[in-house]
């Protein structure tokens, strides 16, 4: 039997948390005797009724077996990585607090990852976009953002830009162990960091079939829809701010220069901008 841990980091998530969790509990994989699925929730210092909802879920649902709560706010990346470091499982699925999972999300991901446990493997997928009420407004975030399959061919692309949507990310234990043995560069969020490690030392699977409804509302972390030149200027300004970190990343990794990192970052960003306008 394969143990699966679904990791949710919450922060003032009272509005959509129940719908998200119920979409997880409705997964067809729960009816598969080959899987032992548990849902883990860590609250990142909520001040609304999120903790009360978590307590209700824990008391009602036997598959929600553990809750990590904290008065401190680590932020999404460090909150997820903390959970990853302390929870033992064979496979890990990362989950936002406000989306809706399609019923075959877990089983489909496991069909890609299940038989290659010795290699670090990361799986992620396209997403459908929905409005705050859960109504679909776009069938493909990749199309909205100008993604093409060739973007996912090289580990240097994962190192240079953030290609993976963490709310669709799943990894195996070998990926977890590899990531825990490397120090994360703080220029990268957890999803980019994990996908880069897996792309360089193992396998990254990019599934063109959407696995979730990604909810668009005022407080989500990652926005969907059209990308603008302003978006890329903002990203460039952030990169310049952390340029010393970027140089350190390249120096320590050794297989990529700063000039190559910049070239890849500019090339992929411009391609995405152009292709998103031509969709």
TrEMBL record:
Pfam families: Glycos_transf_2. Keywords: Glycosyltransferase, Transferase. Its EC number is 2.4.1.60. This is Abequosyltransferase RfbV. It is an enzyme of class 2 (transferase). Residues 6-116 form the Glycosyltransferase 2-like domain. The keyword Ribosomal protein does not apply. InterPro entries: Glyco_trans_2-like, Glycosyltransf_2, Nucleotide-diphossugar_trans. It comes from Vibrio parahaemolyticus. Transmembrane segments: none annotated. It comes from the Bacteria. GO terms for molecular function: abequosyltransferase activity. PANTHER family: GLYCOSYLTRANSFERASE, GLYCOSYLTRANSFERASE 2-LIKE DOMAIN-CONTAINING PROTEIN.
């Amino acid at each position: 039997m394969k143990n699966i841990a679904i990791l949710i980091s919450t922060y003032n998530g009272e509005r959509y948390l129940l719908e998200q969790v119920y979409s997880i509990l409705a997964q067809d994989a729960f009816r598969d005797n080959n899987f032992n699925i548990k849902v883990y929730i860590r609250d990142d210092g909520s001040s609304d009724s999120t903790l009360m909802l978590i307590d209700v879920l824990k008391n009602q649902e036997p598959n929600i077996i553990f809750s990590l709560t904290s008065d401190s706010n680590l932020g999404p990346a460090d909150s997820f990585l903390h959970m990853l470091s302390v929870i033992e499982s064979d496979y890990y699925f990362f989950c936002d607090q406000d989306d809706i999972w399609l019923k075959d999300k877990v089983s489909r991901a496991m069909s890609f990852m299940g038989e290659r446990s010795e290699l670090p493997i990361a799986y992620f997928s396209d997403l459908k976009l929905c409005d705050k009420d859960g109504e679909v407004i776009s069938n493909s975030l990749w199309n909205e953002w100008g993604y093409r399959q060739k973007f996912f061919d090289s580990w240097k692309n994962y190192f240079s830009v953030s290609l993976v949507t963490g709310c669709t990310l799943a990894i195996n234990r070998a990926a977890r162990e590899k990531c825990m043995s490397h120090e994360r560069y703080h220029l990268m969020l957890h999803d980019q960091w994990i996908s880069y490690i897996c792309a360089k030392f193992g396998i990254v699977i990019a599934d063109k079939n959407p696995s979730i409804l990604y909810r668009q509302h005022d407080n989500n972390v990652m926005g969907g829809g059209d990308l603008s030149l302003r978006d890329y200027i903002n990203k460039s300004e952030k990169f310049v701010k952390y340029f010393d970190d970027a140089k350190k990343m390249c120096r320590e990794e050794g297989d990529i220069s700063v000039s190559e990192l910049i070239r890849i970052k500019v090339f992929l960003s411009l391609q995405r901008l152009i292709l998103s306008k031509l969709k």
